[in-house]
## 1
Amino acid sequence: MKKQLKRYFIYGLTIFLPIMLTVYLIILTFNFIDGFLGKAIKPIFINIFGFYFNGTSILIFILLIFSIGFVTTHFLGKKLYPWFEKQLLKLPFFRQVYPAMKEIALFLFSHERPAFKQVVLVEYPRKGAYSLGFLMNDSAKSICQKIGKETCNVLIPTSPSPFSGFVVIIPKDEVILTDMTVEQAVKFFVSDGVVNPE
């Protein structure tokens, strides 16, 4: 009976925690947006319309996101955005943080997934020890010629972030292809190996 109760509790926790953490994260994000934009928008709304209600800033934020998406996919956005991005990457803090944040955002929300071609296994960091990695691309011809073998570039992620790590040049005949999806591999890395792919 004790074992069964423990089993029920663990199963309940594994269902309850992810849902509650997701809801909490959404509420936290909305509260942050409402608090951040609300300070600027509230006095303007009261002066013009004579009222303000909580959540107005979230509606304006959603409209702002749609506007940014519309402008960057039409008109001058296609030329202005790359220039603006280059300027951001010149700033010390943005140079380190922005590329990683962009990769995460692309992975979560965009149809344009990061350039992970396939999930692979490689013997790394030593013989007999295997690491999961992402096959990125074939290596440059000059590198292949120097090594004397056909090689490829494999990203070995560092947990819990699957978007950063070490790029290792591996001979193609030493790369083991897997049936694992990119999403399954991401879950594996984010969970520090706790969540095994099915």
## 2
Amino acid sequence: MPSLRLWCSMPFLTARWEHLAMLQWEVDPAWLAPFVPPGTELDPYEGRHYVSLVGFLFRDTRVLWLPIPFHQNFEEVNLRFYVRRTTPSEVRRGVVFIREIVPLWAVATIARVFYGEPYVSLPMGHAFDDVIHAGWGGVTIEPKRIRYEWQASEGLCSLEVDDLTPAYSTAPGSLEEFITEHYWGYTRVSDRAAREYRVEHPCWKLRSAKIAKAEVPSVELYGEDFVRLLRTPPANAFVCDGSAISVDFGDSVTF
């Protein structure tokens, strides 16, 4: 029987994340203060604070390397912001989720139980307009439009990006690099403890979105302040094609 140490050295979850649509809004840091876990602090970019509304697909999802029937491919949409934690050896830059939505009850339940994340399960869907290129090097798929939908009690919510540019690498020091290069997740356990876990993935290629919008009427899911904010045009929007990812078990850290 594998030891507990061996289990904990394995990734808890592996998958592919694809068609990541990421919309950013500048936000008053006072709105975020109640959500900041113990031991972390807000992580600004050039003195400004951002929230991101992110939609993407899980593909080939596995828990402890095991595929779970009917729970491998599904959408997620989350609203998140950015924090950091200073340890004796490094500064860990991470994300905190205000709300996470998936269409599968079991996935939402596992995430709440193991990580304390604010998941809910709602009906969801997606639509992609892709351009397929066939050449000597094989077939490549270039996304041009991405849309995610989720059905809340107060109405249909959606995010959409359109008119995407060809893929490019992130520029060092850019807002896009800041948004995508946070590799830790944090959730509040108590007033003096937080759960910390690491998400592994390579640096992603990006595509700028010339058109981006969100329709998020649900005060129940997001609160009045964030609903008002998400009605305004985003300050920045781009798409990541995605990659394989892994999420470790994490640990509870007390302060």
## 3
Amino acid sequence: MDDFQGRVEANTSVGPGYYFMKIGLARPLGAVEPGQFVMVRLPSADYFLRRPFSIYGYGQKWLSILYRVSGGGTEYLSGLKKGQQLAVLGPLGKGFEVPKGRTPVIISGGIGIAGIHLLWQGLKRKAVCFFGCSTEKELCLIEDPAQDGVVCSTLDGSFGFNGNVVQLLESRLPQIPPPLQIFACGPEAMYKALRSLLDSQRIPCQVLLEERMACGLGLCFGCVRKTSDESEPYKRVCLEAPVFDLWQISL
């Protein structure tokens, strides 16, 4: 798989430490599954390895990412200006699968909205989206927190439900018509809480895992996670995922 040559079309701050980037591509990206990602090569010799980012949005010759500044690479990325060039490898990985006959429920924690946004767009009038963050200042990650089908929580109680997003889901779960299919993207602590909440009913749940990646192609085995697959327990997040069945991964 070859890199796509890209050009920054927009790179704007959407909130404290959060940025939205739109990248124009020299050729069409092709088909994309919600939950897939790209590896971005930064235009600097100081950053040799590509950085993985979930595909937030895309069109025939463009894609967008939503990211948080969390280190030197993303700090550099946030300073790129319109017209600067970079390279993109993708789409990569295994995305979400939407089964028929189940009520879809989307759970997002903070910047996890970036990994689940495409799925939310595709299911817009058929799913409830539960979004949780620390404070109302992070509601910038949601296009419209008050839109129909979105229910928000903040840890400090500054907007919506006072608590974390799994507690919010627990309070609303009896009102959602079964059978359910849950899709989630967020921190690992959120997945552990989800597993505890859903365990008694064993509700199907797909989760998107984030791991440090070197190649994104499954060659280096640097992003392996243990699963319950007895024949081949260790799976590469970049190749066999990043979307896993919650009940098959070790947390």
